[in-house]
Amino acid sequence: MNMDRAGDQAASTRMLETMAHNLLSALARAGVPASTSTNPAPTPILTTTPKPTPAPAPSSTASPASRINNALKRQFPGMYSGGTAIRGKARFKTPDRSPRVTHLPVFVLPGPTSVTPKGSMELELAHAGLGKKVVLVPECANHSEIVSLMEGEYMKLKPLMGRWMFFKATGGSGQRKLSIIPIDSEGYSGRQLRMASNNGKNVLFLVPLQEELETAPLPFSSPEFSKMPKVACNNCLEIIPLQMLALHSESCQTAKEQTDKIIDVNDDEDDEGDDDADVDCTVGKGVCPICQLEFPATELPHHANICAERSFNIEEDMDPNLPGSSSSNSTLPLPGPSTQTTEVWKTAAPSEAVRLFMEDLRRGGDHQPPLRLTLNAGDTDEERDGTLISFYKQRRETCQWAADFRCSILGDAAVGVGVMRNTLSTAISKLTSGFKKNMGNAGVTAIFEGQREHLVPNLCTAILESDLFAMAGRMVGHSSIHGGPSLSGLSPAVLDALTRGTKDIVTSKLCLEDCPEIEVRDTISLLLKEEWTEAESVRVADLCTEWYFPVPTKETNRLLLFQQLLSHAVLGRANAQIKQFRKGIKETGIWPLLTARPDVLPLLFPRETDVELTPQMVLKCIIWPEASIDSDDSEDEMSTTNINLISGFFRAFVKEASSDVLKGLMKFWTGWELPSPRLTFKVVRSRGHHHLPTASTCYERLRIPDHYKSGSALKLDLHACIESVQSGFGLI
Known about the structure:
By secondary structure, the protein is α/β, with parallel strands linked by helices. The protein contains 26 helices and 19 strands. Strand 8 (230-232) and strand 9 form a beta hairpin. Helix 6 (245-271) packs across helix 8, helix 14 runs parallel beside helix 20 and helix 15 crosses helix 20.
């Protein structure tokens, strides 16, 4: 009963408020003063002296509307404000408050992974502009705003274009497993991240899905460190972010001690009469104790730290007892005196010029951190091609392409220089055989197309807009720097347009085989005929009209028109593609060699017939085995007869093999199609009839088991091994 009575009172109050509001609205519309009504109340008789009131304002200065508003405010101060009635709960509206913000701890990892980083990597990643930061994320932020916030804090995320996701770690200490934070239908939101991080108490890990981010140390003046407090190093007086001082101080102190020793030695030599060294010391220069290069004293500690780490990694790779080591004759040269300013390559023989120029480039890359590419053995062919494309689409400085190139395959035991060779060989072959990407309604996308010895750029617009020709130029330059396979079979006219572009020279090298479109080629070839049928005349006229050329008449110089149409078909339509390909080559640093030494073009862009392998080329590189004890498989000495028998079977296989089979054999043996000067051949003790030939690509060593009794059986197994190259190293 009490509840019903309270409800009736509330309803009555709301009804009275509604009636009063309607009355006020009617008065305002009618322009009637608030003191006027149909039944005015009688004026009370005052028995006391009234208080004096202020004089009213002159009627000439107040409008009727303002008088009504003032009267309404006096009569209903709680319900009327500023000439507008306040309805219901709006009268009790609270002032606006700022949106809720979460202090979100984010840890950016350098590449795809399923575990948290080691504690020792935190400072290293922070020095690279990655690692842990606290990002202010509004609760109302949507996915695109969150991506912008992360890219603002971590500038290295911009090239990824949002190809990353958040992960969270399980409980415990040390390295832990990461579990993905699923995305809502509209992407991540600030509220979702706040709940996933437990109101900012737990760290969220930002993991790239495809690319590998650079982990090279950034200069301390980089924008990534702009918000960090700065202090001066006590040794080198360099301004260092406070978080990086612990990482910097150890290397700085070590480099300072080594530099002091070198300066002391130089001082001793100065006393014996070397005045030049004394001048260098007085201007604040020092020599790196590892690469023996001169650097200013302020830059020497930072350089020595990087140089020492790189030297340690190279020595580790050269140790044959370590897993994943490379053969000593395949590693890049150790840092040495710079010859970047020498120009011996300009006057040397073509092959020697290429070797000297590439050595100079690699020596310049010694001071750069290694380029790393990680593939996944479980990926499909399309996913693996996508990884290659993503790696080479990233723009880098010229010296970075000359740095040490290290490749690894997740889920495969293969490591070392052999994986690098296989990766470069695969990248170059994909330019002509095609990447498994659906672009332009094609299941396989080849960057260059056409017939043998007449490859031209693919005219697909999607390939050009995706900057895949620049990617192709980087692949070609990168492979050339590291002594890998070359892009063979380019049209001479395209190659001439790429390097010189002189129209007269280019036109003279054109031929009908350069036009990959058979229908267009047949139409252009009609201009070499003396008489046309009516249908042929229509075909020529339609092609000229489509390409904005004059329709030929009896007076037309058909030979000139033939050259013009063919030039447009091969070069005119591919002008943008050739320019983009040239741009990619320039970025790798080999362009000065191509322009200064045109005679090296056949070496860097050979004809397919020039790169064919012959049995004699392979046989002269093989180091044949002798009767010896094979420590890998058996302690018993293998008979000379058995070794000679297996060696004879293999020699017969090489002599009968075609060029393509020999290229596959070299790729199985060394990692790429190029034969090495020292191909090691070994006969090992068999573990059974299912024991297939194996290869150590890093050491360029081929092992053949001794159970073969006929050359046909060995030939069958070798073909199976060659076919398995595309499936991964673990299956070889």
